[in-house]
Amino acid sequence: MLKGFTVPRTPLGLAAATPAPPWHYSSDIVGVEYWADPKATAALLPPGLAADPKTNGHAALLFLDWQFTAQNDELLDPARYQYREAFILIDAVWRDTPVTFCPFIYVDNDAALARGWAQGFPKRIGSIFQTRSFAAPSAAAAPLARGSRFAGSLSAHGVRLAEVRVKLQAPEPDVTKIFSRPTVNLRYFPRLAASEQSQPAVDELVMSVTDDLRIVDMWTGEGDIRLPEAAGEEMHVLAPVRAGLGFRCSMSYSVTDLRTLERAA
Known about the structure:
It contains three helices and 13 strands, in the order βαβαββαβββββββββ. With 265 residues, the chain is mainly β. β4, α3 and β5 form a beta-alpha-beta unit. The two termini are 33 Å apart.
């Protein structure tokens, strides 16, 4: 019998790209909220989602430094299960529910890529870096304090795709100023058979389910964001019209489930 939550499936199941849920995540986040051209954000939404006229092109670019584990002490295998990530969320509405949708996301780890595709995140491989905080005082420590500065950068195929810079001003006790909506994704897997290429094997809207979500040590301040144009990429269509809050926080949650909202007929 072959085992494995994802391919490759093998007799022991150890070679699978990622282990079975439950999945547990912890991260530090650096990001900037901003507003893009509302026509550009609306054009990226799949059927079933509509643009949110109340927020009119609102989006956020986030950089995350992740540590992951499942049920077999995967956190003790950091080479395989630590990773960094950068993605954009755009505001949308599903029926009457305010949500976000992720049109672009990059990771630097194949285990994270496999989990993301299972969840509906359109992950691709990139090179992601962000400023880290350290407890020992130093000019390089980037403490959570007024005036501290943080940055994040994303490149893929040797080309810079995104940058953010944040200068902290004050702690923010209300995390819903940044994180107030569930994320809806498009799970889409095509068929390769010539007669079925217009009939995807999977085409469904799903809502991420995060158990025990905790967001702590949030600071906000000035934010700056750049999404330069790059050949073969399309993130630049979401370039900022204006920037909003920059932020830095830590987050943890677990994943055991996924909510299916709609399936294509």
